[in-house]
From TrEMBL, chains A, B:
It comes from the Bacteria. Belongs to the ROK (NagC/XylR) family. Pfam families: MarR_2, ROK. The keyword Transferase applies. Residues 1-22 are annotated as: Disordered. The keyword Transferase applies. Residues 28-75 form the HTH marR-type domain. InterPro entries: ATPase_NBD, HTH_MarR-typ, ROK, WH-like_DNA-bd_sf, WH_DNA-bd_sf. Keywords: Kinase, Transferase. This is NBD/HSP70 family sugar kinase. PANTHER family: BIFUNCTIONAL UDP-N-ACETYLGLUCOSAMINE 2-EPIMERASE_N-ACETYLMANNOSAMINE KINASE, ROK (REPRESSOR, ORF, KINASE) FAMILY. Residues 11-20 have a biased composition (Polar residues). One of its GO terms (molecular function) is kinase activity.
Length: 405, 405
DNA sequence: AGTAATAAGTCAAGACACTTGACTTAATGA
DNA sequence: TCATTAAGTCAAGTGTCTTGACTTATTACT
């Protein structure tokens, strides 16, 4: 049967898949629960003590976990807890935004070890690529200066930039970053760094960050509403980031709102860009964050109108996200001045009624997440860490043992 | 470490999980591609010929696949294609709607073998439970009359009813089915039938049906916009139905729309219920479908205004679903008269611009799905079939080999 | 025709990773 | 002091996939 019609099927799996999954499950358990003994791990993962012992031994040899002092709790032999070794792996995260690019190096537990930023000249990739590659190279060499074997333990480079990706161009919308979105960034970064490179939109990166070290830590269903230069939602569904067909899932900023007979994307109404426009501020100004933060802290009147208007849209966005995704919680985060995000959160409440209103909730419907200009770069770096170490369906399948898909 | 704090971790896996996954992958491949030879399966699943041979042999013994006549295509030994055996497994599907309950028996490939319906008396579960259990019992005995061993091969009972589930009650909204939604339906059905029982909302069931035998067949990312008595979206994400935290994901009917200074749920504007209200029709009328279908076919003026208004809301809903889920396609389906759905589709076009507008699309942005009063019951039945036979992450994990979670 | 090439499928041994059950170690509590 | 409890190890066992050689059956070429 050498038909030319392609046959579509999921991959099968084998021992390697089993083993890879079980390793990931151990790491995940330690990440979520903190240090655990082998016996704890065996109970939690439903594997046998022996299997856990073997895997832990291997992980320890690989420098990913290490034992702590034995704890004497009750009867029986004291248990030896194991914890993740932060220096077990590193990843570089890269944020490409309209006027600035930021890079960080993080370790296995999501601590930022090195950070640096650079202004991004106008003109898109032709002018910006070198700036970015230099920034990444700088981060890598600084990382090598503080930790041993950083290069050997570098699992990849995660990039994040505003979406959407690959859509039929709407001309030359200054809100967008079309030149970058059309540019073969993955290939360029791969060639320029020799690393495994991943790409996600900025809201997805923010969600990835919240999942590794923030409010979504250990939560299986969460939506991160991300306010930055644009606005988007990062989706954690079934414990994994959901990307959609083309990596554009969650691009709520592109949702059209109808009012006064005309339609406007949400992004034009509630986003830092809209605030800059409202305040007639040049978004390329490097002191922008401090200035906005200051205005927000002082409760400045010039910001008030925007906050109130944006809060209406955000309140509705949260209602909609709850309705469509049925998450455990919604997290409001941003690559935005913290004081501004705090004012938004205050202005948003009380929330609209939704299916999220139910008895027995343990998590609040809306929680604040990171509001930090570095959170997107952190999330970008968390991407490769997650791909390499988190338990997921794709990692069990036979075609993915070696390749980062 | 006998701490009382619960430890959260994913399950590990072992050989059984591997084997279970590979069996499912074979079945899935045959479902998507039709009959395939062992060599085809080996290539598609990346398993070895030997492994495939062993698994196919086992599936054949279990009566799930059977060989067809050898095909001579090119050089080499002729291949023997294997196909799914429809009689390999059965499931019962049950739809509970406002005024009617329907049940079907389907086989492994999703063919409906038996169907029956009954009026559902007012008063909720106290009056309706017996009707439903009798209906299911009737379907089972009829199924047993047509096929051998139907009881032995019955993998479960899937129930579908309008959501949302478990939300803090909004009083006694006649649009809802609160009494049923609060009722311990799963437990009652389990006790009353002795089967494994699953429950999903009607839009999810419709999506499950589209996935098994309809427009979403073999598609990994699809959103089914479902128009029935209410309106909802069934989400196929990463090849699986997405349920959300409480089985309420996709409940777009609960989304509030703001117009003229007041908010209205989408469901009150675009749904059969709203049409019934518009036409002042009693929704309990058994001849309803035929009547509406007739009106729609005749292009009746009384329906026109509703269709045009609903199309505006649906057009926007599709835009929103595309924006948030980034699916390969949106499928408009319904437990509604076919002529009505056709008129809606005609009235919806052209679609609003969205991120789904991209070069190189292979699937249309919007496709018609099933518009059939039985599609929800069919989808309900497809649930247990899918749980038992489709490849999915949960099926690999150690705690799920025997239990239908 | 006869033969080489090609591809499907089988056989039997091997490898790998988890499981089993007995055992060792090291605490607590009566 | 010693029974009890629990962590963790040891060594053999088991299930499932892999490997590589082999058989079978057909087409294509000379």
């Amino acid at each position: 049967m050498n038909d030319s019609r392609p046959i579509r099927a999921k991959s099968g799996t084998n021992h390697e898949g089993t083993s890879a999954h079980n390793r990931r499950v151990m790491i995940d358990a330690l990440r979520i629960n903190g240090a655990l003994s082998r016996a704890d791990l065996a109970r939690a993962t439903r594997l046998t003590k022996q299997t856990v012992s073997n895997i832990i031994e291997e992980l320890e040899r690989d420098g990913l976990v290490s034992s702590q002092e034995a704890v004497r709790g009750g009867r029986g032999q004291p248990s030896t807890p194991y914890r993740l070794v932060p220096e077990g792996a590193f990843a570089i995260g890269l944020q490409i935004d309209r006027h600035v690019t930021r890079a960080v190096a993080v370790d296995l537990v999501g601590s930022v070890l090195v950070r640096d930023e650079a202004g991004l000249p106008p003109g898109g990739p032709s002018n910006g690529t070198k700036v970015i590659l230099d920034l990444v190279a700088g981060i890598r060499s600084k990382l090598a200066g503080i930790v041993q074997q950083s290069e050997k333990r570098l699992v990849g480079l995660g990039a994040a930039m505003p979406g959407p990706f690959g859509v039929a161009g709407s001309g030359d919308d200054p809100w967008m970053m079309e030149a970058w979105q059309k540019f073969p960034l993955l290939e360029t970064l791969t060639a320029g760094t020799g690393l495994d490179v991943g790409l996600q939109n900025d809201a997805a990166a923010a969600a990835t960050a919240e999942r590794m070290v923030g409010a979504a830590h250990g939560i299986d269903h969460a939506v991160c509403l991300f306010v930055g230069y644009g606005i988007g939602a990062g989706l954690i569904l079934n414990g994994e980031l959901y990307r959609g067909t083309n990596g554009n899932a969650g691009e709520i900023g592109m949702a059209l709102l109808f009012a006064d007979g005309k339609s406007t994307p949400l992004e034009h109404r509630a986003s830092l860009a809209s605030l800059y426009q409202h305040l007639s501020i040049d978004p390329a100004d490097p002191g922008l964050y401090a200035r906005i933060n200051d205005l927000a802290l002082r409760g400045d009147q010039s910001i008030h109108a925007w906050v109130e208007a944006a809060a209406v849209d955000l309140r509705w966005s949260i209602h909609l996200l709850e309705t469509l995704f049925d998450p455990q919680t919604v997290i409001l985060c941003g690559s935005a001045p913290e004081a501004l995000v705090n004012r938004l959160i205050a202005a948003i409440g009380p929330l609209l009624p939704s299916i999220a209103e139910r008895r027995g909730r343990t998590l609040p419907r809306l929680q604040p997440g990171m509001a930090d200009p570095w959170s997107v770069a952190l999330g970008a770096a968390a991407g490769p860490i997650s791909r390499a170490f988190d338990p997921r369906f794709a990692a069990i399948l036979k075609d993915s043992f070696n390749s980062e898909a």
